[in-house]
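Annotated sample (chain length 187).
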Amino acid sequence: MRIIDTHDGPISEPLEDLHDARAERWYVVQTHQRSEGLAERHLLSQNFRTFLPKRRRTLRHARSMRTVCAAYFDCYLFVGLDIQRHRWSPINSTIGVRKLIMANHKPIPVPQGVVESLMQVTDEEGILHPKDILKYGQKIRVHDGPFAGQLATMDYVGRSGAVRILMDIMHRSVSMYIDRDRFSVIK
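Output written by the structure step:
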């Protein structure tokens, strides 16, 4: 059986097939334990864009010490894709991958700017330097809570992510702790 196309005009592409750079987002991939590098290599071989931030870690064993590079977020890495354009289902069956983080049968995108800010403080070896994200003395704007819209100064960032800010209240500098997602840095 032969099918003949009688369409005379140019064939238009469906809208979802057109590439839009803004449509590509970062998503979180959960990996098997200590398989972040393996998962990253296999995702790269499938032409997925990945980001695996690393940290230096000292291992002690039987009176010897050595420093190695390990994933900054144990069992997680990021993959960039446009879910309207790319087939993302092969990610779940990739060697080293446990699953793509999803809700309602769709991957959940990482909030805009999170991965990009991590990339800015990652050196050429892939080592993440989180203290460069938030620095003492930086000006911030509070987004939510009773002090929404107020300006403050970064005072301290703890190892666990606790953030202490200084806010001018009635001509007095008052320190308070705030969640990282409740403010943004003013550039």
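Annotation: The radius of gyration is 22 Å.
Annotation: Residues 14 and 99 are 29 Å apart (CA to CA).
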